[in-house]
Design goal:
217 residues; 7-stranded mixed sheet; 25% strand; elongated; 7 strands; alpha+beta; 4 helices
Length: 217
């Protein structure tokens, strides 16, 4: 008789892996010409044709895979459950040749004084695609979408104090340091961060100058 081989138990499926895409390297390769930041921090490469698509429940695991490949910090399940509930214009994938190569996610945060702020939670681009202005276009999209609303006072985010490239990158878009938080991060060094903000509201015009006092007769 012929003995049947025992069926091997298959491990449970993990989160989906990112597709292998090519534009000067595979999605998993580090391009030595690109900087170490999570978004494109400058460079002289030409723009790649790029499309934006919504981050929704059916593809949110793709965001998890992208973040795992991009950031030194890990986001919990609550983050991925809530990210799809934020306004669609603030949670977007960047796609090149049908491959997901970057993403931005931001949320509206109500303030005690009744105003709202837009907080950028993540902005990341795969290493092989940095330097092609993908991160710049993702960030500009969020800023433009925020400017179309009349209920947001600024866009803000946190940047690790040692990340000089990110500071320069956001500075080109009008972000300025408005504060510093000690021990903000728990698993990376240094653990401190700067708070960067870009105002959205147009400041009121200065009051007209006072007329000179009448001359005594």
């Amino acid at each position: 008789c012929v003995r049947r081989a025992a069926a091997r138990r298959q491990p449970p499926p993990g989160p989906p892996s990112l597709p292998r895409c090519r534009a000067g390297g595979s999605a998993g390769d580090r391009n030595p010409r690109k900087g170490p930041g999570s978004a494109d921090m400058g460079g002289e490469e030409p723009e790649l044709p790029m499309t934006l698509t919504d981050i929704v429940e059916s593809n949110v695991e793709q965001l998890r895979a992208l973040n795992l490949a991009t950031f030194p910090v890990r986001y919990n399940n609550k983050f991925y459950k809530e990210v799809t509930t934020h306004p669609r214009e603030f949670v977007k994938f960047a796609n090149v040749n049908g491959c997901t190569v970057g993403a931005v996610s931001a949320r509206v945060e109500p303030q005690e004084d009744g105003s709202n702020r837009l907080y950028i939670m993540t902005l990341g681009v795969l290493a092989a695609y940095r330097g092609y202005r993908i991160g710049s276009r993702l960030l500009q999209h969020v800023i433009d979408a925020a400017l179309e609303r009349d209920d947001l006072q600024d866009v803000y985010l946190h940047v690790q104090t040692s990340n000089e490239e990110a500071m320069t990158f956001y500075g080109r878009f009008g972000f300025e340091v408005i504060g510093e938080i000690k021990n903000y991060y728990t698993r990376i060094h240094p653990p401190h961060c700067y708070v960067l903000s870009r105002p959205l509201a147009t400041p009121p015009p200065p009051p007209p100058p006072r007329p000179p006092p009448p001359r005594p007769s």
